[in-house]
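Researcher: Sequence recovery benchmark, item below. Answer with residues only.
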């Protein structure tokens, strides 16, 4: 095995560790939900996936949010996005209504509880970004760009196999 193969093994090991961190009890959801002072939010612990939190944050950015745009925004299929929306409605985080000018399409709006989750996610992301900035300062813009290109190409492989 040559040097680049060994490095590729290490990169995939790191990516797999990162992916394995996605669980209902991962650090992000612990901080967003389980450790929240609001009992209503704490009751959501273990019920939200990372995709659920991402959907709430996506709707938060542009509300009302057209439901038909959601699959592309969160990189999932339309049936998966629809099931997640149903779950989030059942959990009291989203409300779905018809578009005023097109009764065939739906729009999504956060409830007060959904807003609280979204705001906690924004705060968490800001903290994470600040930490990532420190790490990124050790690399040149070109190195970071090449790493991003590498990850994008890996994601394209993954997308083609689904």
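Model:
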């Amino acid at each position: 095995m040559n040097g680049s193969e060994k490095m590729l093994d290490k990169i995939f090991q790191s990516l797999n560790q990162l992916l394995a961190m996605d669980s209902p009890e991962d650090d992000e959801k612990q901080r967003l939900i389980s450790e929240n002072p609001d009992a209503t939010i704490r009751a959501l612990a273990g019920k939200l996936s990372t995709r659920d939190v991402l959907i709430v944050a996506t709707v938060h950015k542009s509300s009302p949010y057209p439901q038909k745009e959601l699959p592309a925004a969160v990189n999932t299929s339309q049936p998966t996005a629809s099931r997640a929306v149903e779950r989030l409605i059942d959990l009291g985080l989203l409300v779905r209504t018809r578009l005023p000018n097109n009764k065939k399409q739906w729009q999504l709006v956060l409830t007060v509880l959904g807003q609280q989750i979204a705001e906690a996610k924004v705060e968490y992301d800001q903290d994470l970004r600040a930490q990532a900035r420190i790490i990124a300062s050790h690399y040149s813009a070109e190195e970071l760009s090449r790493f991003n290109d590498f990850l994008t190409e890996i994601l394209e492989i993954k997308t083609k196999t689904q």
